[in-house]
Amino acid sequence: MPNATFSMKQLGNDMKIEVNRNGFLVDRVWSDAEVSAMQAEMNSWKSFRYHNVVITDAAGKTVKSGGTNDPHVVLPGLDHFGFPQDLKGKTVLDVGCNSGFYSMVAKLRGASRVMGVDVSSLYTDQASWLRDVLGFSKEEMSFQAMDGAALEAMQEQFDVVINLGVIYHIENPMSYLRSVASVTRGMMLLESEMLLDPAVSEYAWFIEKEYGCDPTNWWIYGPKCLEGMARAAGFSRVQFNGFLWRPEPGTKTPDGFQRQGRGVFSCWK
Ligand SMILES: C[S@@+](CC[C@H](N)C(=O)[O-])C[C@H]1O[C@@H](n2cnc3c(N)ncnc32)[C@H](O)[C@@H]1O
């Protein structure tokens, strides 16, 4: 089902938005000038882009940011492994939100309010821009540049926390997890690069230099290891939902390491 619809919302401004395997689809026809302006904005993100944000209007005109990660392709897998389908009336925090794709999905699934934080203001600026393009208000969706290890300062708790693709980038993961736990009222969806070998499930691999040519990769966790860490950080029940992605056997990173998998947990306070 290549065009299956995952989320849809009738916005107050009459723009209907859908997320499917191709990205965002809006029911408005944008002018050529509007499309050029949107594409120019995305081009200005230059090398600072991770999400490939794709938006198509009702006439089939598409703009895309060209990031390396297609979150609209990842979403069905996350859905299978616990991304909440119904967020009606819930407050949601998206930690490491990048350009805000999952924040938008949370809103489209009924969240009353979404906040996205990212350590990089370049990414939160992208997310704020995307919010404005899709017609969400600042009251219902806000983005703030901040370190996920410093969330206590917000003095607010959220019903649902989305914590995807961040923890292996964190040098001091327990401080980070405690910080995220302190602002979680209900549940946290946690996704990470994970060790695949069941023999090392209770261990973590410290990356001294680079893995995948990315010096911000610090740790890769076995499922039992990260499960215990989440419990120790303040979640009373932690469930490993499984591997979202596994490489072909024998796949190496460009720097020559065995490529590991991606796993997802549901963690309840
Ligand atoms: C691999 S991307 C994942 C983006 C998005 N959550 C997803 O799953 O598609 C990692 C994101 O985490 C952000 N990040 C890294 N360290 C962080 C920290 N200490 N606090 C908040 N965000 C952080 C990065 O800037 C980047 O946007």
Q: Assess the beta-strand content as a share of residues.
A: 25-35%
For the secondary structure, the number of strands is 14
User: Which value, in Å, is the CA radius of gyration?
Assistant: 18 Å
Mean pLDDT score, rounded? 94
* Distance linking N and C termini: 36 Å
Assigned CATH architecture: 3-Layer(aba) Sandwich
* Largest β sheet strand count, sense and barrel closure: 7 strands, mixed
Q: Give the neighbour order of strands across the main sheet.
A: 8-7-6-9-10-14-13
- Per CATH, what is the topology? Rossmann fold
Number of domains: 1
Number of helix segments?
6
Bound molecules: S-adenosylmethionine
N-to-C series of helices and strands: EEEHEEHEHEHEEHEEEHEE
CATH class: Alpha Beta
Amount of helix: 10-25%
Overall 3D shape: globular
Give the low-confidence spans: none
CATH 4th-level superfamily: Vaccinia Virus protein VP39
What is the structural class? Answer: alpha/beta
Descriptive overview:
- This protein has a single domain (73-268), classed as Rossmann fold.
- Helix 4 (121-134) links the parallel strand 7 and strand 8.
- 24% of the residues lie in helices and 29% in strands.
- The model has no long low-confidence stretch (mean pLDDT 94).
- It has helices at 32-43, 71-80, 101-108, 121-134, 173-182, 223-232; strands at 5-10, 16-20, 23-26, 54-56, 62-64, 91-95, 113-118, 141-145, 158-164, 184-194, 204-206, 219-221, 237-245, 261-268.
- It is globular.
- It is an alpha/beta fold and 269 residues long.
- The strands form three sheets. A seven-stranded mixed sheet has the order 8-7-6-9-10-14-13, with helices on both faces. Strands 1-2-3-4-5 form a five-stranded mixed sheet, with helices on one face. It has a two-stranded antiparallel sheet with strand order 11-12.
- The chain has six helices and 14 strands.
- The chain binds S-adenosylmethionine.
